[in-house]
Design a protein that fits this description.
CATH class of one domain: Alpha Beta
Radius of gyration: 19 Å
Strand order of the largest sheet: 3-2-1-4-5-6-11
Largest sheet: 7 strands, parallel
Distance between the termini: 49 Å
Helix content: 25-40%
Order of helices and strands: EHEEEHHEHEEHEEEHEEHEHH
CATH topology of one domain: Rossmann fold
C-alpha cells in the first residue's frame, strides 16, 4: 500500500485531487499538509476515510517519520490579490516547499507539481505551447508567483537530469468551480459573489482580456490521468486547461444574466494583467487521448453559482461581507 502526501490538500484544487486519490485501492495513507492560508478544512469535511490525515503547518516546516511513495505539491496561493500581498511567503511555499518535500519522497517515488500558465506571462504567442518560453517580468508585481513556479519547475527538471527524479509537472490554466473561496479574488468567483451580494460586477480595464476557463471536475480528471492513472512515460510540462478562449467581460455579462438586476462597472486595469491565455493541447491529446474539458463555461458557471448560493447561505468564516442577495 502506498503512502501519499498532498501539500495544499485543503485548497480548492487540492481537495478535489484528494477525493480522486482516496478512490484508489492502493493508497494506505493520504497525508494532507496545509497551513490554511488559502485552504480550508471544510473542503475535506465530507471525507470520512481513516486513511486521510490532515496536518496544519507550513509546507516548508513539515516533518514526518514517514517517507512517501507519491508527493503532490499544490501548496501555493493562485490568486493575484493573495500572492501580490505576500510575495515572500508565496516564493517560499513554492520553492522552499518543494525542497522540503523532496526530502520526504521515497527513493524511486514520484513527485508531482502543479505549475501554472502564468509562466507564459503576457504571451506573444497564442495558443501557448509548452515549448514557449514566455514573456514574464521577473521584477513585476506578479513575479513572486510566476517566477517561483518557473524556478520550481527548473529545480524538478534539473533533479530529473542529475538524480533521475521521477517527476510530473502540469501547467494549469484558469480553473474555477466549487470550493473556491468567496474572497478568492479571481474573476469567476469575484463576479459570482458580487452578483449574489447585489453589488455591481467589477471589470478591470475594458474586459477584453481573455482566459481559458476550465471547470474543476474536468481539470482534476486530467490531473488524475496524468499523475497516476495513465501509463504514458511523459514527465511534462503539460498544459491542462480549456482551449476555448473567452473574454472576461463575456463571463461577467453571462453571470449578470443569471442574477437579474446585476450591473457592470469598470475600474482601472490591473498592472500587468495578461491580455490573453489559451493552452496549446497538442501534447495533452497525445499523452491523455480522449481527455478534454467537456463542461462548457455556461454550464460550469451555473453549477458554480448554485454552489456559492448554498455555501453563502450556510455561512462561513471567510465570507466577510458577502451575502446572498
Amino acid at each position: 500500500m502506498k503512502n501519499i502526501l498532498v501539500a495544499g490538500g485543503c485548497g480548492f484544487i487540492g481537495s478535489h485531487l484528494c477525493d480522486h486519490l482516496l478512490q484508489r485501492s492502493d493508497v494506505g495513507l493520504c497525508v494532507v499538509v496545509d497551513n490554511l492560508w488559502t485552504g480550508r478544512k471544510e473542503n475535506l469535511a465530507h471525507v470520512q476515510d481513516p486513511r486521510l490525515k490532515i496536518v496544519v503547518t507550513d509546507v516548508e516546516a513539515f516533518q514526518s517519520d514517514v517517507l512517501f511513495d507519491e508527493v503532490y505539491h499544490l501548496a501555493s496561493p493562485a490568486s493575484p490579490p493573495w500572492y501580490m500581498t505576500e510575495p515572500k511567503r508565496t516564493i517560499s511555499a513554492n520553492l522552499l516547499g518543494a525542497m522540503r518535500l523532496l526530502h520526504l519522497l521515497k527513493p524511486g517515488g514520484q513527485f508531482a507539481f502543479t505549475s501554472t500558465s502564468e509562466v507564459y506571462g503576457d504571451p506573444l504567442v497564442s495558443p501557448q505551447p509548452e515549448s514557449y518560453r514566455g514573456s514574464v517580468d521577473c521584477t513585476g508585481p506578479r513575479s513572486s508567483y510566476d517566477e517561483s513556479k518557473r524556478c520550481t519547475e527548473s529545480l524538478l527538471f534539473e533533479m530529473r537530469r542529475t538524480e533521475k527524479l521521477n517527476v510530473r509537472v502540469v501547467r494549469l490554466f484558469n480553473v474555477y468551480g466549487p470550493r473556491t473561496r468567496p474572497d478568492d479574488g479571481r474573476a469567476v468567483s469575484n463576479f459570482i459573489t458580487q452578483a449574489l451580494a447585489g453589488k455591481p460586477i467589477t471589470i478591470y480595464g475594458d474586459g477584453m482580456q481573455s482566459r481559458s476557463w476550465g471547470y474543476v471536475d474536468d481539470i482534476v480528471e486530467g490531473l488524475a490521468r496524468f499523475f497516476w492513472r495513465d501509463q504514458h512515460g511523459y514527465d511534462g510540462p503539460l498544459n491542462v486547461g480549456n482551449e476555448r478562449e473567452i473574454p472576461v467581460i463575456e463571463v461577467a455579462r453571462h453571470i449578470a444574466q443569471l442574477v437579474p438586476g446585476t450591473t457592470l462597472v469598470h475600474r482601472d486595469p490591473v498592472p500587468q494583467d495578461p491580455t490573453n491565455r489559451r493552452p496549446d493541447l497538442t501534447i495533452a491529446r497525445k499523452v491523455l487521448p480522449g481527455w478534454e474539458c467537456r463542461i462548457p463555461y455556461e454550464l460550469g458557471v451555473q453549477l458554480n453559482l448554485e454552489w456559492f448560493k448554498d455555501h453563502l447561505k450556510a455561512g462561513g468564516p471567510d465570507q466577510q461581507d458577502v451575502r446572498v442577495a
